[in-house]
Amino acid sequence: MNIIIYEDEGYKDFLPLTWTRPVYDLRCGVNTLAEKICRQYPKTNVEFSCRYYLPGNKTMKLEKGLFINGRVLAHERLAQEIPLKGQDEIFIADKEIVAIRAVSKSFAQVSKKAKIKKVDLKVVKYPWELIFENTMELRRDKKFFGKKGKAKIDKSAVIYNQADVLIEDGVEIEANVVIDARGGLVHLGEGVIVRPHSYLKGPLSIGAGCKVAGEISRSIFHGNDNKQHYGFIGDSYIGEWVNLGAGTTNSNLKNNYGNVKVVINGKSVDTGQKFVGCFIGDHAKTGIGSLITTGAVIGMAANIFGGGITPKSVPSFAWGAKDRFKLDKFMETVKIVMSRRKIKLTALQEDLFKKLYRLAK
Q1: CA 188, CA 181: separation in Å to the nearest integer?
Q2: Which long-range contacts (CB under 8 A, 24 or more apart) does 347-355 make?
Q3: Dmax of the chain from CA atoms?
Q4: Above pLDDT 70, what percent of the chain?
């Protein structure tokens, strides 16, 4: 039986991070949500279903298989809770459908015949949950990490709790860097460069190709991000190809120690947490001296400049406070940025950006 990992309407609550990827390609710990699901069903054919405009889209259609919601945070008991073999069955966790095993010929028949089973699984609903779950997920992913990669580590670097620092090939840790894994694991993806005098505090996951400096704690950097200057980023999810200018700093705690609220789909949502940073979409950029307010959401391809405190919510393709980034200028910038990493913008990606320019606000 095939497995089909799909995304439902819940992806909207992860925007702008999900404008450019299916929700199951978000990272938590070392791996993506999809990778975590796949490794619980070894030697099983896995297919994917996502929104119509994303590259590699496969519209979910009727076929026999085990359909798993891409927002499931898979753990070691997933295949036991939701086994491949069996009859028509619908699996529920926290009032949400997390999986459907379809054996009958039509979904109508499945809905009539299927038994309902409640399962003990976590389904992420908001982006800050990826940050909260990062501590445990790094520890789970460590079991599958294998040997540490070959890295260049300056002799002056200080690493606390080295056993919980997961380093991939090509990592460079420069002079006087401090990596503190005493409070949680630290993962440095392939080719990550950590500039001198930086302080990295776990739980922390820095994706492949990132260049980082300053102070970073309890965050996820998706990949190919630039934060090469002083400034603090904490309790945040930074999308891919983001550039944070010198002095860019985010707040992760309100002065009154109250719960942080985040704007999701135009509505203010109480996170129920005191420590929440920011969420920045792919290809966004901040100018020097940008101060990101607590719980801020910065849209995909947004350009913030002029210094000072950012708004609570910045639209995608924003250019400063009032204008919109022109599409041709955005494309030109993307090509330059990616070429600096010897990566070429594909025709599929270019087509996606054109669609998102109409869709993303």
Answers
A1: 12
A2: 348/55, 349/55, 351/55, 352/20, 352/53, 352/54, 352/55, 353/301, 353/327, 354/327, 355/53
A3: 66
A4: 98
Q: What integer pLDDT is reported at residue 58 of this predicted model?
A: 66
- Tell the burial category of 261 from Cβ atoms under 10 Å away from its Cβ (0-12, 13-18, 19+): middle
Task: Quote the pLDDT of residue 57.
Answer: 60
Q: pTM for the complete prediction?
A: 0.95
How far apart are the C-alpha atoms of 22 and 49, rounded to whole Å?
Answer: 9
Q: Go through the domains of the chain in sequence order and give each one's CATH number.
A: 3-125 (3.90.550.10), 131-359 (2.160.10.10)
Both tokens of 153, joined, read 């580590």
Mean pLDDT, the chain, whole residue set: 95
